[in-house]
Amino acid sequence: MKRQNHLFELIIEYQNIRLAFIKAIRGKRNSTSVLLFCRNIDKNLAKIRKRLETLNPNWGHYRSFTITDPKERIISAAPLEERIMHHAIMNILEPIFERQLIFHTYACRKGKGTHVAVLYAFRHCKSSSYFLKLDVRKYFDSIDHIVLKQQIFRLIKDTRTLFLLVGIIDSYHTDSGKGLPIGNLTSQFFANLYLSSLDHYILEVLKPAGYVRYMDDFVLWGSCTGELQTMLNQIELFTTENLKLTLKTPVLGKTTQGLPFLGFLIKARGIYLLRTSKSRMRKRVKTIQTELSIGKIDELKAAQRANSINAAVLLARTQKFRATLWNGSGFGPRQVSGENRLQRGGSWNMQSEPA
After folding, report:
1. Across-strand partners of 271?
2. Dihedral angle sign, alpha carbons of residues 166, 167, 169, 174
3. Contact 34, 80 (CB under 8 A)
4. Cβ contacts of residue 217 below 8 Å, gap of 6+?
5. Closest by alpha carbon to 24, among 41, 43, 6?
6. Which end of the chain has less neighbouring CB within 10 Å, N or C?
7. Rounded mean pLDDT of the chain?
């Protein structure tokens, strides 16, 4: 594999930095930081270019806050100028990282996503008898900086670009030499790349009947528990020795009993919502109702949020649950015709994949 060179010149091109700005402000155009930046946009973009040219843009001015949906996480948000630089870098490096990934890893990739991953898992639950579901313990907090840098050095030769990437990696840590900030654009790409060697090991050496990964959640399918248990032992050894990671307690079960994956319970006869997912939906609906009643949001914003909540679960058999959930709210979206076509044998527009 040829290492990529002459990337830095592409990163600092004015058009690339302007494109990075457009991406960074998406959904935030009315924020104070964006409005102030736009008062003298050309001058500010030129400053960002100069910061990149120094090779030490002083990364790491994160604003941290905690979210608890579905579990508690510390989000570290970079300021606008750093987010623009992150986008400028990844505009150029994304294709290089993308070529290292297998087809069936679905997080933070164009044309992929939760729904496509769930549909792929549903297909294998219909054709396989057993599954092995694995998850990395505190994944972002556990990513080893040395291992990550070695992976990047195998792909990129350009010294100035490597200086930028190393600076981003070293700007944050949860423990000595470990951790990536949840919230950084670069962290998504680094985290996907970090497990790509495990993906290739599973597919090319272990060769399960099926395999899918969504960030640090991954599932293997097989014809018997003994086969999957052997694979589990090898995967635990690989992740410990090569990636310095620890797996959570594995879930080994029959597909007829259902695979819990990405908030859904996937069975051969259909896709359902987990109880925890239903509970989160109820909390979100209650929040919308409260904010609407006190005037924090208007009816249009409430309807938009309601549509978003429903769109996230339309793969599952949720018609009765959603009817009960939104009953009397006055702003819940109506039943979507044609939902659950997958379970009723209808067609579904899936992304094509290699045989």
Report:
1. 266
2. positive
3. yes
4. 133, 134, 135, 261, 262
5. 41
6. C
7. 89
- The reported pLDDT for the residue numbered 313 is 86
The pLDDT confidence band at residue 348, using thresholds 50, 70 and 90, is: very low
Per-residue pLDDT, 156 = 97
HSE of 285, CA atoms in CB hemisphere, 13 A: 22
pLDDT in tens, 129-161: 999 999 999 999 999 999 999 999 999 999 999
SS3 211: strand
Both structure tokens of 177: 């030499």
Phi-psi region of 213 (alpha: psi -120 to 50; beta: other; left: phi over 0): beta
pTM metric for this prediction? 0.86
Q: Determine the straight-line distance between the first and last CA of the chain, rounded to whole angstroms.
A: 24
Cis upstream peptide for 333 (omega within 30°): no
> Residues 174-196: what's their mean pLDDT?
95
Per-residue CA distances from 121 to 26, 216, 255, 277 (Å): 31, 15, 10, 18
Helix or strand run (H / E) with residue 220:
strand 217-222
CB 103 within 8 A of CB 194: no
Is the pLDDT assigned to residue 194 strictly greater than 60? Answer: yes
- Give mean pLDDT, residues 97-120: 95
Q: Helix 145-153 and helix 159-170: axis angle, to 10°?
A: 160
264-267 and 270-273 beta bridge pairing: antiparallel
Pairing mode, strands 130-135 and 251-254: antiparallel
Which amino acid, residue 168?
I
Lowest mean pLDDT among 62-71, 187-196, 206-215, 286-295: 62-71
Rounded CA separation 152/90 (Å)? 13
Predicted confidence at residue 330, as pLDDT, reads 58
Q: What is the rounded CA–CA span in Å between residue 249 and residue 247?
A: 7
Q: Residue 333: left if φ>0, alpha if ψ -120 to 50, beta else—which one? A: beta
Among residues 132, 140, 133, 136, the alpha carbon closest in space to that of 247 is found at 136
Contacts of 206 (CB under 8 A, 6+ apart): 220, 231, 234, 235
Give yes or no for residue 336 having a pLDDT over 50.
Answer: no
